[in-house]
Amino acid sequence: MFSDLGYSKSGDLSGIEVWIVPSEAEGMAVVFQDTAEVPGRPIIVAAKVDGSRVTFAIPEGSDGAGTYSGVVTDKDFRVHWERRARDGHVDKGVFVLKRKESYWQRH
Question: How confident is the model at residue 86 (pLDDT cuts 50, 70, 90)?
């Protein structure tokens, strides 16, 4: 479980949670939840795992849509994110999700 989900200074719940789990159909899968003010719907997608590198895509129209690729360590998941916006420009980002208990397990 990798997460940065929590309350912002403004009091809004925000962040992302990623669970990387085995799946009979896909081999490996990601359970993904993006939260901005209110929890988004969790999404399950196929994941490609090559050693410590994990790659997956969240479909357009979903919270957090885009491609994610990163490296898992014993402490965190360092993620590169990319999404093509409707106007054609590409949004990109890099973030780190700490390996820890889910926000939902703590609250």
Answer: low
Average of pLDDT values for 45-69?
A: 94
Token readout for 40 is 């988004």
Alpha helix (H) residue ranges in the chain: 103-106
CA distance 19 to 44: 9
The torsion of the CA quartet 48, 50, 54, 59, rounded to 10 degrees, works out to -20
Structural domain boundaries enclosing 71: 2-106
Give how many domains the chain has, as a whole number.
1
- Please state the rounded mean pLDDT for residues 13-35: 92
Residue 77, judged by CB atoms within 10 A of its CB (0-12, 13-18, 19+), counts as buried
**Smallest Cα–Cα separation from 68: which of 53, 84, 57?**
57
